[in-house]
Amino acid sequence: MKVTIVDYNSGNISSVINSFNEVAKNKVKIEVTSDLNKIQSSDKIVLPGQGSFKSCVGALKNIEGLKDVLNEFVISNKKPLLGICVGLQMFADIGYEETETKGLGWISGKVSKIDNQNGRYKLPHIGWNQINIVKDSKILRDIENNSHMYFVHSYEFIPEDKSVISATTDYSSNIVCSVEKENIFGTQFHPEKSDKIGLKIINNFISL
Amino acid sequence: MLKNRVIPCLDVKNGRVVKGINFVDLKDAGDPVEQAKIYSDGGADEICFLDITASNEKRDTIYDVVEKTSKKCFVPLTVGGGIRSVDDINKLLNCGADKVSINTAAVENSKVVIDSSKKFGSQCIVVAIDAKKNGDKWEVFTHGGRNNSGINAIEYAEQMEKNGAGELLVTSMDRDGTQVGYDINLMSKISSKVNIPVIASGGVGTLNHLVDGIKLGKASAVLAASIFHYGKHSIKEAKDYLDSKGIPVRI
Fold it and tell me: What share of chain B is helix, strand, coil (3-state, %, to 5)?
């Protein structure tokens, strides 16, 4: 089996690479690439993302053909993909960070700034927060409810269809932090930085 | 609920820990990778390395340390000390750092913070403010506390938020190394003026100082070095203590 981490200049992905290598050991091949053929031929894809919605969508578009390859992989071939942080946010139809930007449109919804209730809450939402698991999800297998995960973000994904939500976290409001829609998985938190429990989520994805 | 973070800081010089945990079973007491691993296994919410390497020739040693640590510790890793440019930041992030903390360069050239937060995202840009009291205000010091910039620390903090900093690491120069506790006035003043998280640093001598930093100083996270060194307190003790005082922590 081959798991590909898409390297599309979306910011710092070394922690994602390190954590997947740690979990995969020598059982699974982890490839880090922007090569379209290699992405196409992999069994699973990880879509990381740091920085802004706009910059990540822009970086994705900068690699000619990447969007089409991802669409085919996810929508036509229904192979598993895990989006992390902005990688998850890009599933939306539209994002409002910096400027209005179209997303991948895989899960209907929008990405908007977290309401900080007139400065009562600090942004970014940085640190360890507990997740409330609201539905069974394959990547949350054997993860206890109220487990701590590491977050760092100022924008949140608001899907139209609430049934895709597998976990939320409480901050200034109830923030969506894990989604599953068929073969599409995403976490707003960083499993790669969430210690052993985060590595377990990565293992769950690799073992799908 | 978002938890308050406890962040141990290790001073690293020429790739070796200068002050650190003194555990008998430690194979190599000066190995930053091994010490960072003890901290993360013990429940540290993040790890911070402060590179205090003085000579330019040995500056590269930190990259090796970061690379090795990031392959063993799966909690956020912040690296500070000697960062001058966007290139330096890029190199550290590529080695596996999750955040960088910028001190002198942020004072000398505001473009470093503006450009790096645009390029890498605010989430990985921490501005470190070394502040010292002068009359009724605090002034920002650079070069490891040697030079007084004369800049008002509170105004500077607000400016850094505007420039794109994702967090502020505020160290009281007056308190650093004294073990008499954080400068609570400085922390709470800055924290109330900015909307980004403040990490309190400088002066921790007891576990109760950590409580004060969060309750009175309004800090989101507390950073400490010496109380965790030489086994005085473990991370777990610190977090259990905070928990017993009603402060939300990840246990």
Answer: 40, 25, 35
Instruction: Determine contact: A98 vs chain B, CB below 8 A.
Output: no
The conformation of residue B4, written as its DSSP 8-state character, comes to: P
What structural domains and CATH numbers belong to chain A?
Answer: 2-206 (3.40.50.880)
Q: Which of B5, B74, B195 sits opposite A195 (nearest CB)?
A: B74
pTM, two decimal places: 0.95
User: Residue B205 contacts by C-beta under 8 Å, 6 or more apart in sequence?
Assistant: B178, B179, B180, B181, B226, B227
Instruction: Point out which residues pair with A181 in neighbouring strands.
Output: A184
Q: Which tokens go with A180?
A: 């599953």
For B91, the closest chain A residue by CA position comes to: A12
Residues 6+ away with beta carbon under 8 Å from B150: B139, B140
In sequence order, the 6+-apart residues with CB closer than 8 A to the CB of A170 are A129, A130, A132, B1
Q: Model confidence over A31-43: pLDDT tens digits?
A: 999 999 999 999 9
User: Hey, what's the torsion of the CAs at B74, B75, B76, B77, to 10 degrees?
Assistant: -70
SS3 category, A89: helix
The whole-angstrom separation of Cα B17 and Cα B12 is 4
Per-residue pLDDT tens digits for B102-149? 999 999 999 999 999 988 889 999 999 999 999 999 999 999 888 999
For A51, the closest of B3, B76, B121 (CB atoms) is B121
Backbone angles phi, psi at B49, to 5 degrees: -105, 130
Q: What is the C-alpha separation between B41 and B35, in angstroms, rounded?
A: 10
DSSP secondary structure code for residue A27 in this structure: T
CB A3 within 8 A of CB A20: yes
Half-sphere exposure at residue B65, Cβ-oriented, CA atoms within 13 angstroms: 30
Cβ–Cβ of A14/B95 closer than 8 Å?
Answer: yes
Q: Which residues of B touch A198 (CB under 8 A)?
A: 74
ipTM score: 0.93
Q: Are B192 and B229 in contact (CB under 8 A)?
A: no
